[in-house]
Amino acid sequence: MKARGLALSAAGAADKSAYTHRIVTLAQCLSERSIPCDVFFMADHFPLHKETPASLFMPLWLGMLRKRRFVYCGGEESAQALYFLKPLLSCPVIVDIHGDLNAQSAMANAADTKGAVTTSSPRVRMIDWMGKKVADQYLTVCEPQRNTLLAGGYNPDKISLIRNGVDLELFKPLPQPTEPAYAFAYIGEFQVWQGVELLIEALRRVPPEAGRMLLLGFKPSDAVIKQRFYDEFGDRVELLDRVDRTRMVELIGSVATLIIPREAHTAIRHAFPTKFAEYAAMGRPILVNNVDETAEFVTRYNCGFVSEPDPEAMANSMKHAANSSWEELHAMGGRSRQMAEENFSWNLIGDEYAQVVRRLLHS
Hints:
single chain, six-stranded parallel sheet
């Protein structure tokens, strides 16, 4: 029986986040390529369910870890749990940086304190430092973050670009509607860093005749922001809670243009939204703001609209999209699907990741 690798997640097995999906999918990609890899969910094991003290208790699992060919850590949150064990491990450790943990903390603190605190918390800085220290190889999802790591003195041979992917069989291209029920749609989460406030300000500047907008994905915790959209725009918006994939695809089939309304921030620049790959795979024009690498992809493939991250510019881009012909939108959608096939297929990404692991195991 082959020795197996281990993917380490700080979340629980029931977690439905895009990042947990990435961890599980990358492990599956390896197993499908004859590199067996299990997933260990720390949050389901007391006392590893608390990130900060997990490094003190992970030695209880040393026997399991020492039997592994490699350990893949989903983010610094799980990697820091290996900090005191690293000298005792004979296998290489891969740390999936994925995003800028310090910048994310700073952004959340600024939002929570209305700008009074704009730095990351000491706890997050500690987790970030400890997590990076255990890595033999780093993964990142975008070129801007890779360049930042290089500028910080990291060895380029130890950094690999492994993007967020999409299942092209699951997310199939949809015909561009000739009479769309919705001119625009945003599908996803509604946290402040998703650019929800910017979207509200932009939509205020778009005339009702441009068409209705679908907002899909509300959770019970989003009740306040959901009510704001209703109070502000009434029948101009369709506000729907999370639905299953069958219903989601049905709804997107009635949408002309999909939107990712993010604001400028280092945390955004160093990320790469999973929804971008999914939007593209479904063959839809995508409207993005010029705040991260998605804008470069949209420009390169001419598969949507790129706006500066301010309400006036974004409103103008939305009006431009609403006034585009069916032929233009149809052609953009075809190029979106092409972009997904050439860059974001899990089959392609799985091959790239397996190559990284094989190289590390034989180095």
